[in-house]
Specification:
The chain is mainly alpha-helical. The protein contains 10 helices and no strands. Helix content is 71%, strand content 0%.
Length: 210
């Protein structure tokens, strides 16, 4: 009996959900397609029907589960956006609130921090290194747009500011993941984001020669 498109899509989503859960718990390298198939209740053949390999599966689940974040990120970098900083603030809040309240976003950020928080860049998979560089580029574009619209200081260094944002957001998420009983990310998200924006308003200036 041939599967309907709806059944095929349901299987694909089930595979991605199981992969995201296992990737976030064990890491990508330590998770096999057999592990994912067992968790999803499908055969490895079903996985290969939808995805070429494990990294193709990663690309699919990242695109699917990060779509709310991607939409806000694109809006903050758009020339047509009248309030790029406001959209960027929404994005930061969604990341912090979602890390605590949304299971899929929590697993996504856990996976990201697990795979990119390594001391040696040689240990980072090429796909994750490319993703990290892409996210940095997107942050820089959003910050440049906010500078152009007069919402951030004209002498702000967007490259340095992007790196500071990553360090601050990653640090908050890792601290919460390790000790969630110490504070609530979602309850204090507004305060944290205001502090991040304050850093951008008063620091991370471009270097002057001389």
């Amino acid at each position: 009996m041939r599967r309907t498109k709806e059944e095929a899509e349901a299987t694909r989503l089930c595979i991605m959900s199981s992969a995201l859960e296992l990737f976030s718990e064990k890491g990508i390298a330590a998770t096999s397609l057999a592990d994912i198939a067992l968790s999803a209740g499908v055969t490895r053949g079903a996985i290969y029907w939808h995805f070429k390999n494990k990294w193709d599966l990663f690309d699919g689940l990242w695109e699917h589960y990060s779509s709310p974040l991607t939409v806000l990120g694109a809006a903050s970098a758009s020339d047509d956006q009248v309030d790029p900083l406001g959209k960027f603030v929404e994005l930061l809040r969604l990341v912090l609130v979602g890390a605590e309240q949304d299971q899929n976003i929590r697993r996504l950020v856990t996976l990201y921090t697990r795979e990119t928080s390594v001391l040696s860049n040689d240990d980072m998979p090429e796909r994750m290194r490319a993703l990290e560089n892409d996210l940095h580029t997107r942050r820089v574009r959003a910050l440049e747009n906010a500078i152009k619209k007069g919402q951030l200081p004209s002498d702000l260094d967007p490259e340095a500011a992007s790196l500071l944002i990553k360090v601050m957001v990653d640090g908050l998420i890792v601290s919460w993941l390790r000790s969630p009983e110490c504070f609530s990310l979602s309850e204090r998200a507004g305060q944290f984001v205001e502090s991040i924006i304050a850093v951008l308003q008063h620091g991370a200036r471009k270097r002057t020669s001389g």
